[in-house]
């Protein structure tokens, strides 16, 4: 187990429970621009990002790419909608750089939860965190201007260092041209 994965699990679980869950994780390498998940594929797993950066996206009715999420080192990534519902992906999950993830199957988590209720707490806390971040993002899209959302991203260096501007624009819900204008106005 890596120190980063142990620290991540330690946030959710007592130390004596980490060893057992750690046995369920498998290391997977993903090359830059390759997909961890595509629509229609099985997504009944969580992937802890040991190294790398991912984007989660889909296409709208006009075939425009819409980025809904970014996940960085020491975060979890998957198609959360598919994970918590059918197990079949609706979103693309793509590595933006060479990455290493540790995956754990949903069925392995469910087996651990049946054996020991303390693992239920892991799942509950993880779901709460995801839901909270999702609701914060949704709220920002509805209550903040694009410039305000961009200023918030500026406070998170990993976004500015690792994410191409065209992807930032999609994530902010604006065009590349609008993002250029906002950047120009702020400089």
Give a structural overview.
The protein is an alpha+beta fold and about 190 residues long. The protein has two domains: about 5-145, Jelly Rolls, CATH 2.60.120.10; about 145-185, no CATH class. Helix content is about 50%, strand content about 25%. It contains nine helices and eight strands. The chain has helices at about 5-10, 15-20, 80-85, 105-115, 120-145, 145-155, 155-160, 165-170, 175-185, and strands at about 25-30, 35, 45-50, 55-60, 65-70, 75, 90-95, 100-105. The strands form two sheets. Strands 1-8-3-6 form a four-stranded antiparallel beta sheet. Strands 2-7-4-5 form a four-stranded antiparallel beta sheet. The model has no long low-confidence stretch (mean pLDDT about 90).
What descriptive keywords fit this protein?
alpha+beta; four-stranded antiparallel sheet; 187 residues; 2 domains; Jelly Rolls; 23% strand
Short description:
By secondary structure, the protein is an alpha+beta fold.
């Amino acid at each position: 187990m890596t120190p980063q994965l142990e620290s991540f699990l330690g946030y959710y679980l007592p130390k004596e429970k980490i060893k057992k869950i750690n046995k369920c994780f498998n290391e997977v390498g993903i090359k830059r621009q390759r997909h961890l998940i595509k629509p229609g594929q099985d997504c009944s797993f969580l992937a802890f990002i040991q190294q790398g950066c991912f984007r989660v996206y889909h296409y709208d009715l006009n075939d425009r790419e819409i980025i809904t999420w970014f996940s960085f080192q020491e975060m979890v990534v998957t198609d959360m909608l598919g994970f918590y519902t059918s197990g079949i992906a609706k979103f693309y999950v793509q590595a933006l750089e060479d990455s290493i993830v540790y995956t754990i199957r949903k069925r392995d988590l469910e087996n651990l939860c049946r054996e020991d209720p303390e693992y239920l707490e892991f799942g509950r806390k993880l779901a709460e965190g995801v839901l909270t971040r999702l609701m914060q993002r949704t709220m920002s899209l509805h209550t903040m201007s694009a410039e305000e959302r961009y200023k918030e991203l500026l406070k998170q260096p990993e976004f500015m260092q690792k994410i191409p501007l065209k992807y930032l624009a999609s994530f902010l819900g604006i065009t590349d041209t609008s993002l250029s204008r906002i950047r120009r106005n702020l400089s």
